[in-house]
């Protein structure tokens, strides 16, 4: 079973923000909610500047999931971390917990009124039937169900952003690294947790049906 | 606790989904590695996979309610292939349309240009289908407010006013600013339109973009265009970006460039700023803005000194290198460092890298062109490549990244003040050629003009329209000032000297803006400036034009490939296509019939007739032999668009394959038939991927330098030396261009058919409407119709035949002005008096460098395009850059007590004081500041929102840097100096 | 421990995996561009290059494609450049944090998550259960404190209607907050299995919104409560004795007290004032109502931890107060319900206060309404 992952190749990312607007476009994400964003480290410092695009990393041991007071997260067979907006109470705890700042809220949070959490779905929709209108309204498109991959990665200007089956993309990335030199690093879900950037090192996630 | 919770209804069989996924994955990712044979991978299952799903959810995706009215009963999903409208990379887009509403946008992995990739702008173009902030209907400025009027009223009033101005002040009193965003057909139609109005006073963005490149490069070797392609950079072993920030301005080009880098290409970036492109380089060199020639000559110095030049190549194919060499050898490393700030070791390293890693390419863009010596800078770059023997080679060349999506095409066939489509010039012969193509009487056209003299005199330029309005009438080289301005797809905040421009706006009699987003011009015209006089008789009209997604037509990417855009949606709101507006306005002006004499009309919006794009392209094909726009018939282009997967990503060539729809065999074609694609479509010239490549047969897109400047100069041979001919040519020496005389002399005349002979008699290859001369020369004899000559390192018809460094008019270095002063003033230059030395001297004497000690440069942000009105109206983009800013070095900021994120004032010698946020960053050096130019809607700290037509103000507004930019124009093309001026930055003390 | 650092600190990694120092690799003539003359140089410089101190430019020069220095910066969790004006848009990974008792710093989000889901829920949960059991035990073992003598029928206005309103506003909002807050904290474990996802989700949503709006009411209410009752809550000499004898609760001896006894004062100062302020302050932060504060995740995590600790302690203490105010002390609830107490009740529980009333130092009734009520209540009894 494919385990979906993202890798952002900082040697290629040029901070062009295509991934960001592709996501907005595909899912009609409102102003203020950024399922994906691009960050530049050492901006303007000669030889040291690197940009990285980040969204939800669909963590194997997802802190958001663990902390949600209403337990509205779930994980698909493909390892995508999704949540149920019908149950979400907009408490913001997932955003406190998430290392990457992935969870987003449509409103400013005064009086705790954040609205329902929204985050990158790996273009996999939500709990409603695949491709249904309700699903689109709440979570955006379900590209995975259509046999497509995340649009952010598909449209990435330099193919810095790789999204898809962890085995495949790490292979692609490894090839690049080999060509470039030695010991490259990878911006992946392992970064925050210190696990190998190689998804099969992960125990498969529990599945209940 | 973790559950896989998913409604059973929506559950697919896991194995099914996995195979879909892995197919799609393998396919899309294989494209990420252009070296792999991606075509061998499983075909992407395509949009069809999702069609069922898409159909189910369409009800709610329909955001653009405007189209609800005319929906067919059953929902219909169509995929229309179009091309991004935001830059010259030419990324293809599949637009998914349901019931006339653009519901979705998919990447086109098959495109050899972009392999599905986009930048922020391209990934957000679907917003055009929403058009929330567009002008929705025609409007007129009444008592300082824009009021809705009908199309008919608008066209009637505008045409009456135009005819009145024409009658009282002459046709030259109207200035038409066309657009690099028009497709080729519209651009060519506008040039014809202006001609029939009786004037050459038309221009478009190319003037303020690559005019210096076009002039400088064309005068060096023939055609003023990118020699190779983005894709071909994959073959380069070294690449130097000098004055190009491709990562922001041509982001998808980086797909090819980074791939090249990963396979060993050494990447050098020479720029005053450490840009996102520089961040990807192996070697970054910080240069003082405006000092490219000292740097390039510094490199050439080492090249000559170490004997790295390609002696044989220079001997065979270059004229005048010895003269350049003399100048170069005066640029000793210390002088170079003094002038451009780069130490010898760095210059040496760059020279060595390019010399020892051939083929190496040089890439430039606005950093070189937008200077008062832009023409000389670009020629210095050409000379560098000629010295290294890199031109005419795959992996080499001068990769000049063009600007707008169709600036190349609009330059080639559009509204230029000094030429007719295809650079035909304004001489009688050229007029006659085009009149024949257009199917109109030459004498009739002549009558439209003030005189034959005016008919053959270049018009003024978009960079100087302000002066054409304001300058004393006796000082300008036409009868009257310009009194009417039509902005037909061009923003105001892209031209310099905003303060003067506002005066010009207020002095006009008529201002018409035809644009989907005319609002920046609208607001600038409507706003009131204290104490400034306003012409009480001025009238202002705004007409909503359709975007390129609401019409079809061809668009020329930077690499000269033409792509055909299908119409995605019907024109939104009350907007109309540009060709419809041109036709309707022409009818009102009395030359409607002539405008479409040879063009088919088809029903367009609301059943009204409009010229058919296919038919317009065929007209271009019929006339544009010079630069080979004759072979790209709509049928061929459409076949290419349908079969993108057949074209190789590295070579752009089709190995073989037939279009299923038309049966057209694309074998051997280069994608998009990059011009020159010579002769008639029937000749089946494949287009030219890399220009001047003698290792390739002309019928395979090979070539050599053009014989455009005579056969000898002062006794020196200008034609190529023996043996340096294109592969398989019957003539193995240099030769001049072909005309009927040469054909006869060579005994090739009889190879023409009788019909061809008839058409070709007395003509040359450019004016022979049968294309017969070209056919015989190329197909039968493997020769190049434009001859085979040397490139010119010395362009004797330019002010500085050998490119010379000259300091900008506004600079911070009086010591260098003393050594490298600018040109002498010009009395009439493109109809305008133009200042150089007198102004430069005045500035030095006034010690402006003390009051304005920081070099101000400007340029692009990846999210916005041009004047920015379109992109700042797109929420998906606007959110990413919400305020204009000035990049200022931490030290310069600290000296002024300015902190990151604070507003500050940038002041320039024009008296402008613009308010922008400080972005304190080491991207710029201490002596330099940078402001993106995409903002407008603030005027020296004041938000102009109230002056915008209601509902048409973009989401993000900000201060336009061009409110503050200064005087300064290129000495050949009138390019405005936007890359080097001076400023001071002040902290705002409350 | 710090697996993360070890993983991304390639120095450690390569040292472990690969005994040869990484920079020594170019020595063999495998790479085309390694020039023989320089071959020995890297070896020399090894001692001097502290690989951990290399910046990205230096690292790229030595090991192209190695981004360890960049990842070190990322893992520091600082603010980097992002064109989005959103707060923390430039933070790729949250910085590290370590809450009291945690063995080492981890990514703040994780630290917080572990703290909340770990000690705070566990200890907090047990504490609350213990408090509840304590109260039950009190009831079963000690039982309610009844008045030793019957009422005399003369009434004192102990709490004016204003005082009662203030108290009950505080009390009711507290209960609402406690119930709704606890639903958020423990509902997932306790209620969700009972109600199922959908219903619990709905309930939690209601609770959360209730909590977020009632919180500020509570915050205001405690301030007013404080002002209202502070003057009688200053410590007195008798309080110490009261405390030493534990209010005589267990040995049923008499202990002197003023209007409020030391236990009540403890509740006043410790519960209402200290914990109330802590809970309200952190609550207002969590509600994003405090102006001028950067609502970073880090700040909210801290506020959350403080809030949870404060609320758990406050609820624990409140068990005591509520017990005493309802069934623990006979007549107490009436005092807060009607405002009136019998002379005998006052004498038994708050003798010092009663003396003051008798001596006229403190008026028997303070409001017209109180006077009327007192008369209403006493009138018939007398007659
Ligand atoms: N996102 C986006 N993309 C665009 C456009 C857009 O508006 N937005 N516009 C399109 C158009 S019209 C064009 S023409 C191209 C322009 O594309 P570019 O020319 O690449 O973009 P610019 O930012 O104008 O300028 C390039 C660089 O020149 C540098 N520079 C300034 N002065 C000098 C100098 O004197 N010498 C040298 N060597 N460098 C200098 C600037 O620092 C800047 O980094 O982009 C096209 N693509
Ligand atoms: N300071 C400074 N100034 C600069 C530059 C710089 O680097 N620094 N760069 C210069 C360069 S290179 C350029 S090219 C210019 C660019 O500047 P402009 O070309 O003036 O800017 P754009 O916003 O691209 O203008 C295109 C206009 O066409 C409209 N449009 C789009 N599609 C259509 C259509 O189909 N029909 C019609 N009728 N209109 C349409 C858009 O709404 C927009 O208003 O700016 C120049 N100015
Ligand atoms: C007696 C007082 C209070 C108690 C017992 C209490 C209890 C709680 C509890 C148990 C939580 C859940 C924590 C978690 O699940 O991690 C919580 C959360 C919260 N409390 Fe309180 N609280 C009290 C007062 C307040 C006050 C006065 C405010 C605001 C002024 C406030 C605002 C909040 C907020 C904003 C949250 C976060 C919940 C969310 O937004 O979903 N609380 N409280
Ligand atoms: C449902 C819950 C509550 C009940 C039943 C209750 C009951 C009472 C009663 C009966 C009294 C009067 C005691 C006396 O006469 O000496 C009292 C006093 C008081 N209560 Fe409560 N109470 C509750 C909740 C609260 C809360 C949540 C607070 C504050 C956080 C609070 C603060 C006070 C204060 C300040 C006094 C006055 C005693 C003093 O100032 O020391 N009460 N309460
Ligand atoms: S990245 Fe954040 S939101 Fe996504 S799974 Fe991990 S913790 Fe949850
Ligand atoms: S905001 Fe929603 S998803 Fe996030 S923790 Fe709260 S309830 Fe769960
Ligand atoms: S995977 Fe889909 S939802 Fe996630 S960031 Fe990319 S486009 Fe957005
Ligand atoms: S699209 Fe690709 S290159 Fe552009 S910012 Fe996103 S990840 Fe980086
Ligand atoms: S703006 Fe240029 S690079 Fe970006 S998507 Fe459009 S064509 Fe491609
Ligand atoms: Mo441009």
Automatic annotation (TrEMBL), chain A:
Cofactors required: [4Fe-4S] cluster
InterPro entries associated with the record: 4Fe4S_Fe-S-bd (IPR017896), 4Fe4S_Fe_S_CS (IPR017900), 7Fe_ferredoxin (IPR000813), ET_IronSulfur_Cluster-Binding (IPR050954)
Superkingdom, natural source: Bacteria
Record flagged with keyword Iron-sulfur: yes
Limits of the 4Fe-4S ferredoxin-type domain: 4-34, 47-78, 79-108
Alphabetically ordered keywords of this record: 4Fe-4S, Electron transport, Iron, Iron-sulfur, Metal-binding, Transport
Entry-linked PANTHER family: PROTEIN NRFC, PROTEIN NRFC HOMOLOG
NCBIfam families according to UniProt: FDH3_beta (NF038355)
Name recorded for this polypeptide: Formate dehydrogenase FDH3 subunit beta
Source species: Undibacterium arcticum
Automatic annotation (TrEMBL), chain B:
Region ranges (Disordered): 1-22
Cofactor entry: Mo-bis(molybdopterin guanine dinucleotide); [4Fe-4S] cluster
Primary localisation category: other
SMART domains reported in the protein's UniProt record: Molybdop_Fe4S4
Transmembrane segments: none
Compartment(s): Cell envelope
4Fe-4S Mo/W bis-MGD-type domain mapped to chain residues: 77-133
Keyword field: 4Fe-4S, Iron, Iron-sulfur, Metal-binding, Molybdenum, Oxidoreductase, Signal
Keyword presence, Oxidoreductase: yes
Family stated for the protein in its record: Belongs to the prokaryotic molybdopterin-containing oxidoreductase family.
Protein name: Formate dehydrogenase subunit alpha
Species name: Undibacterium arcticum
């Amino acid at each position: 079973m494919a385990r979906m992952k993202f890798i952002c190749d900082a040697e290629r990312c040029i901070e062009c923000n295509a991934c960001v607007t592709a996501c907005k476009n595909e899912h009609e994400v409102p102003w203020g909610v950024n399922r994906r964003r691009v960050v530049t480290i050492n901006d303007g410092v000669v030889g040291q500047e690197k940009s990285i695009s980040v969204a939800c990393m669909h963590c194997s041991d997802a802190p958001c999931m663990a902390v949600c007071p209403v337990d509205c997260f779930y994980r698909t067979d493909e390892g995508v971390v999704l949540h149920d907006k019908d149950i979400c109470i907009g408490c913001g705890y997932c955003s406190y917990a998430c290392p990457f700042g992935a969870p987003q809220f449509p409103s400013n949070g005064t009086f705790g009124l954040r609205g329902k959490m929204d985050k990158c779905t790996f273009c996999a929709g939500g709990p409603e039937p695949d491709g249904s209108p309700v699903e689109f309204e709440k979570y955006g498109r379900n590209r995975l169900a259509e046999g497509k991959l995340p649009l952010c990665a598909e449209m990435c200007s330099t193919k810095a952003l790789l999204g898809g089956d962890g085995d495949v993309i790490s292979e692609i990335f490894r090839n690049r690294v080999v060509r470039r030199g030695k010991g490259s690093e990878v911006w992946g879900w392992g970064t925050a947790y210190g696990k190998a950037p190689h998804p099969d090192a992960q125990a498969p996630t529990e599945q209940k049906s | 606790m973790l559950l896989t919770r998913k409604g059973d209804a929506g559950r697919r069989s896991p194995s099914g989904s996995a195979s879909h996924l892995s197919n799609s994955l393998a396919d899309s990712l294989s494209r990420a590695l252009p070296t792999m044979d991606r075509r061998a991978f499983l075909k992407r299952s395509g949009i069809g996979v999702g069609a069922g799903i898409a159909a189910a959810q369409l009800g709610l995706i329909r955001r653009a309610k405007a189209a609800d009215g005319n929906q067919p009963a059953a929902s219909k999903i169509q995929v229309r292939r179009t091309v991004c409208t935001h830059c010259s990379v030419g990324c293809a887009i599949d637009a998914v349309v349901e019931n006339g509403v653009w519901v979705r946008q998919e990447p086109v992995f098959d495109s050899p240009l972009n392999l599905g990739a986009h930048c922020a702008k391209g990934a957000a173009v679907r917003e055009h289908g929403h058009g929330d902030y567009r002008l929705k209907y025609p409007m007129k400025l009444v008592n300082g407010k824009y009021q809705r009027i009908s199309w008919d009223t608008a066209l009637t009033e505008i045409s009456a006013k135009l005819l009145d101005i024409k009658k009282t002040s002459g046709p030259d009193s109207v200035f038409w600013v066309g657009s690099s965003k028009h497709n080729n057909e519209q651009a060519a139609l506008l040039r014809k339109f202006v001609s029939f109005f009786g004037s050459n006073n038309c221009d478009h963005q190319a003037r303020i973009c690559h005019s210096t490149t076009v002039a400088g490069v064309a005068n060096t070797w023939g055609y003023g265009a990118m020699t190779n392609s983005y894709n071909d950079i994959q073959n380069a072993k070294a690449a130097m970006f000098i004055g190009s920030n491709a990562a922001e301005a041509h982001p998808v080009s980086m797909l090819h460039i980074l791939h090249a880098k990963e396979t060993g290409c050494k990447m050098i970036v020479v720029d005053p700023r450490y840009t996102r492109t520089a961040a990807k380089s192996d070697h970054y060199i910080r240069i003082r803005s405006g000092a490219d020639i000292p740097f390039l000559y510094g490199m050439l110095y080492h090249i000559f000194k170490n004997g790295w030049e390609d002696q044989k190549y220079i001997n065979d194919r270059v004229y005048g290198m010895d003269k350049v060499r003399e100048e170069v050898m005066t640029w000793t490393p210390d002088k170079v460092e003094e002038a451009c700030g780069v130490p010898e070791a760095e210059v040496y390293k760059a020279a060595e890298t390019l010399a020892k890693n051939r083929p190496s390419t040089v890439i430039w863009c606005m950093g070189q062109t937008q200077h008062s010596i832009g023409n000389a800078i670009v020629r210095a770059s050409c000379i560098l490549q000629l010295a290294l023997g890199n031109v005419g080679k795959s992996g080499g060349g001068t990769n000049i990244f063009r600007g707008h999506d169709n600036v190349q095409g609009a330059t080639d066939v559009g509204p230029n003040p000094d030429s007719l489509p295809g650079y035909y010039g304004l001489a009688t012969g050229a007029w006659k050629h085009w009149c024949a193509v257009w199917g109109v009487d030459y004498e009739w056209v002549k009558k439209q003009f003030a005189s034959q003299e005016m008919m053959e005199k270049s018009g003024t330029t978009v960079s100087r329209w302000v002066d054409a309005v304001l300058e004393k009438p006796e000082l300008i080289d036409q009868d009257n000032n310009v009194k009417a301005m039509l902005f037909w797809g061009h923003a105001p905040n892209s031209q310099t000297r905003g303060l003067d421009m506002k005066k010009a706006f207020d002095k006009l009699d008529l201002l018409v803006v035809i644009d989907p987003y005319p609002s920046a011009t609208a607001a600038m015209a409507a706003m009131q400036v204290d104490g400034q006089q306003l012409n009480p008789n001025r009238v202002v009209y705004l007409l909503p034009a359709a975007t390129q997604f609401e019409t079809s037509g061809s668009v020329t990417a930077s690499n000269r490939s033409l792509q055909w855009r299908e119409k995605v949606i019907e024109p939104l709101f009350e907007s109309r296509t540009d060709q419809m507006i041109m036709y309707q306005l022409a009818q009102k002006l009395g030359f409607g019939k002539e405008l479409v004499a040879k063009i088919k009309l088809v029903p367009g919006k609301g059943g009204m007739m409009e010229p058919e794009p296919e038919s317009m392209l065929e007209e271009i094909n019929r006339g544009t032999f010079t630069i080979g726009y004759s072979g790209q018939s709509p049928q061929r282009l459409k076949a290419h668009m349908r079969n993108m997967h057949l074209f190789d990503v590295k070579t752009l060539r089709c190995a073989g394959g037939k279009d299923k729809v038309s049966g057209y065999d694309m074998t051997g074609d280069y994608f998009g038939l990059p011009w020159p694609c010579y002769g008639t479509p029937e000749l089946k010239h494949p287009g030219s991927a890399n220009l001047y490549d003698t290792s390739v047969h002309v019928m395979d897109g090979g070539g050599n330098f053009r014989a455009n400047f005579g056969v000898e100069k002062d006794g020196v041979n200008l034609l190529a030396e023996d043996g340096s001919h294109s592969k398989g040519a019957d003539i193995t020496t240099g030769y001049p261009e072909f005309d009927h005389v040469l054909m006869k002399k060579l005994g090739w005349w009889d190879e023409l058919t009788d019909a061809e002979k008839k058409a070709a008699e007395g003509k040359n290859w450019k004016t022979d409407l049968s294309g017969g001369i070209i056919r015989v020369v190329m197909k039968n004899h493997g020769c190049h119709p434009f001859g085979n000559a040397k490139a010119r390192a010395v362009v004797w018809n330019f002010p500085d035949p050998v490119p010379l460094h000259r300091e900008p008019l506004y600079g911070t270095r009086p010591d260098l002005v003393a050594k490298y002063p600018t040109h002498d003033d010009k009395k009439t230059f493109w109809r305008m008096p133009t200042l150089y030395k007198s102004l430069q001297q005045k500035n030095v004497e006034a010690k402006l460098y003390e009051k304005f000690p920081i070099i101000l440069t400007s340029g692009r942000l990846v999210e916005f395009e041009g004047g920015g009105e379109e992109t700042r109206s797109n929420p998906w983009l606007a959110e990413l850059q919400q305020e204009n800013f000035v990049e200022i070095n931490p030290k310069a900021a600290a000296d002024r007590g300015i902190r990151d994120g604070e507003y500050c004032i940038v002041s320039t010698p024009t008296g402008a004081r613009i308010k922008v946020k400080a972005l304190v960053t080491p991207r710029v050096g201490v002596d330099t500041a940078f402001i993106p130019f995409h903002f407008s809607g603030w005027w020296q700290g004041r938000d102009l929102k109230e002056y915008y037509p209601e509902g048409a103000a973009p989401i993000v507004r900000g201060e336009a840097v061009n409110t503050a930019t200064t005087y300064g124009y290129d000495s050949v093309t009138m390019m405005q100096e936007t890359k080097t001026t001076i400023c001071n930055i002040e902290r705002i003390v409350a | 421990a710090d697996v993360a650092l070890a993983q991304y600190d390639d120095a450690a990694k390569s040292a472990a995996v690969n005994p040869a120092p990484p920079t020594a690799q170019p020595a063999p003539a495998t790479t085309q561009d390694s020039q023989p003359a320089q071959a020995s140089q890297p070896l020399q410089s090894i001692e001097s290059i502290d690989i951990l101190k290399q910046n990205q430019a230096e690292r790229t020069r030595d090991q192209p494609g190695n981004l360890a220095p960049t990842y070190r910066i990322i893992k520091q969790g600082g603010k980097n450049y992002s064109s989005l004006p959103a707060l923390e848009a430039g933070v790729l990974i949250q910085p590290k944090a370590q809450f009291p008792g945690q063995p080492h710093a981890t990514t703040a989000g994780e630290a917080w998550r572990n703290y909340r889901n770990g000690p705070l829920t566990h200890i907090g949960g047990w504490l609350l259960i213990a408090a509840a059991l304590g109260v039950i035990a009190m009831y079963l073992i000690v039982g309610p404190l009844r008045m030793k003598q019957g009422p005399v029928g003369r009434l004192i206005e102990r709490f004016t209607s204003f005082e009662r309103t203030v108290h009950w506003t505080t009390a009711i909002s507290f209960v609402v907050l406690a119930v709704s807050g606890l639903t958020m904290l423990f509902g997932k474990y306790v209620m969700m299995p009972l109600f199922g996802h959908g219903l619990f989700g709905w309930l939690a949503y209601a609770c959360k919104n209730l909590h977020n709006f009632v919180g500020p009411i509570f915050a205001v209410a405690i301030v007013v409560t404080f002002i209202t009752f502070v003057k009688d809550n200053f410590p007195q000499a008798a309080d110490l004795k009261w405390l030493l004898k534990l209010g005589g609760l267990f040995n049923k001896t008499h202990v002197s007290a003023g209007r409020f006894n030391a236990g009540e004062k403890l509740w006043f100062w410790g519960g209402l004032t200290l914990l109330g302020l802590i809970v309200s302050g952190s609550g207002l932060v969590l509600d994003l109502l405090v102006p001028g504060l950067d609502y970073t995740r880090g700040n909210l995590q801290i506020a959350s931890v403080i809030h949870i600790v404060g609320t758990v302690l406050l609820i624990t203490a409140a068990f005591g107060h509520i017990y005493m105010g309802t069934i623990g002390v006979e007549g107490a609830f009436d005092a807060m319900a009607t405002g009136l107490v019998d002379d005998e009740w006052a004498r038994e529980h708050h003798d010092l206060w009663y003396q003051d009333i008798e001596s006229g130092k403190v008026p028997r009734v303070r409001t017209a309404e109180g006077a009327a009520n007192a008369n209403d209540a006493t009138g018939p009894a007398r007659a």
